[in-house]
Amino acid sequence: MNSAAKIRRKVAPASLADGGDSADKQEQLLLSSAICNNEDLGPFIRKAFATGKPDSLLHHLRHFARSKESEIEEVCKAHYQDFILAVDDLRSLLSDVDSLKSSLHRSNSTVQSVAVTLLNSLDSFLEARNTFVNINLALHSVHSCIKLLELCSRANLHLSSNNFYMALKCMDAIEGEYVDKIPSVTLKKMLERKIPEIRSYIERKVSKEFGDWLVEIRVVSRNLGQVAIGQASAARQREEELRIKQRQAEEQSRLSLRDCVYALQEEDDEDVLCGAIEAGGNSENGVLGFDLTPLYKAYHIHQTLGLEDRFKQYYFENRKLQLTSDFQVSSMTPFLESHQTFFAQIAGFFIVEDRIMRTSGGLISKLEVENLWETAVSKMCSVLEDQFSRMQTASHLLLIKDYVSLLGVTLRRYGYLVDALLDVLSKHRDKYHELLLSDCRKQIAEALAADKFEQMLMKKEYEYSMNVLSFQLQTSDIVPAFPYVAPFSSTVPDCCRIVRSFIEDSVSFMSYGGQLDFYDVVKKYLDRLLSEVLDGALLKIISSSIHGVSQAMQVAANMAVLERACDFFFRHAGQLSGLPPRMVERSRRQFPLTKARDAAEDMLSGLLKTKVDGFMILIENVNWMADEPPQSGNEYVNEVIIYLETLVSTAQQILPAQVLKRVLQDVLSHISEKIVGALYGDTVKRFNVNAITGLDVDVRLLESFADNQGSLFSDEEASQMKTALAEARQMVNLLLSNHPENFLNPVIRERSYNTLDYRKVVTISEKLRDTSDRLFSTFGTRGSRQNPKKKSLDTLIKRLREAN
After folding, report:
1. Which of 437, 571, 678, 683 is the most exposed, fewest CB within 10 Å of its CB?
2. Pairwise pLDDT comparison (1 vs 54), residue with the higher score
């Protein structure tokens, strides 16, 4: 092997030595090296053809092949002996193989002759085994088909009984366990065709039931809203009844009826509790029951079908469309007639949605319900704004406000925000009260126009309770005997009823509107009703329809009773507003009907003055230059006193003492002015002391009349009445004084003559004449001794003229 290797390494150089020139040798050397290294000969071939010398390349290749043949020959010579030995071994092996083949043939013949019976048995066994396997496969297939058919039968049964969920579960079981394993191709194709059809049928059927439910739930929602709002109204009514009982207890307690015990009936409390339970969270299963089974069924079926999101969207869009249609207000029906249905429909809608949100397991989210509610609130506010702007009747506006507030109470229980609705109601508060004032203005005008201003006759106790006690107009807790003649006319209870109705309507509008302390608002409009509407109507009737003294006296008596009624009005407003009585007393203002009261008293005083003037004309019959003073007063004063006494005996039956005192004081002041006016006027040219003495008697008679009213007034009030005659009294005292010049003393004038006008004093003093030297002296005798009184009077006249 070593010699052969040495020979191979020398082959290439030997062949190179036999080559041509050096270039061919170099090229042949490179080609030989490439072949020995298993390199690509492409570059050599391309180069040969590119240079046009392919023959040279072929020559080099042949030369390389010849060199390799010689090398192979050398290798064969080196291994020839080993090859001979191998051939000998192979021939020996062939001989052994022939012997083995003969032995195997004999063994095979022996084995085959012995195993024929066993092979036949094995074939029978294999055939039987294959039959057994086939039978087992058939039995398994039949068993699977039986189970499949049972599922199909069960699915059909569920479908026929509308138990779609169980039918779908059967479909899922068939698809998951049997479809891919069914040996029957026909049955498999049938199932692959029928299962989608059944699912589509179930979806259509459930969708139809859901559509029917959508139609039905609108009617149910309207009824549901009406029932829920009705429950809220009943609960509010129970609260009002409790408040009335509480106010009655407080009123009786205020009247110091300590021996009375007040307790609320337990049945009422239980009723309230039951009402609260019915109106609470379990109400849907009771009075407020409604069926959501079709909805839940449809939702569950769509979940099972894998269509949950699509059904959610379908449900939300349909309910949103229903809500939008609920917002439509019919132009053919007045809103006053349709507002309850309108708001009840919306209330029922959101009661249902609240229930669905809490129990459906995600069919509709809280955010979606809130968005629907915001849309509904915006639309309801818009509708209310539009309808309120058109209404011109306060009672209509109040009806709608009450129902909207009940809607707010109902939906607030379910967590909905209703502040925007309450804000709309508050926004129209002024308009409502303006309409209410307008209605009351008409009613008061009608009541005043229908009154004859005669004392009201009450024949039965219920009339007394209805017209007197209900407004706390009584002056005594003792019920009078019947028939009873009231000191007021029908105007008083009629106006009281109108004002009380105004208060109750105002409180009703302000109540449950989100504002807890609303007494100031009610009081403001009550002040306007009394000071503007009622006072103005009374002023108008006084100035246009009162002509006689009896009517004027009745109006003045009515004003005194209305003054007591006004106290009741404010207390009643405070009670209805939930304000403690002490707070109402603290916020009281002056009598709001002051103008009408003053006008009534002025009217009565004016008519009495006119009547008195008819008697005062008799003052012209006074003998101003009498020789003797009259002992029993002049004729005019006797007539006046008779009239005044008659007047007082009549007026004290209906007029309060203070009103009668003010009227009499005004009349007496007028009489005093007429007496002084007679002395001051041009009719009386002169008078003497006897005439003044007669006037002194007249004034004394009038003062005596004032003193005689002590049974009606206090001594102090009777003394104040006498001050109405101060001007006449001071003028008479001055003319009868021994020192009339004391009038010039400021201290004496302020104390004794403070009501006298110095111009009247001058004029009247100049008219004084007397022929008797015992009195003021005479002006006709010159040179005789002058009377000191006359001298003092002349001094007074002179000084006053100088001062003037």
Report:
1. 683
2. 54
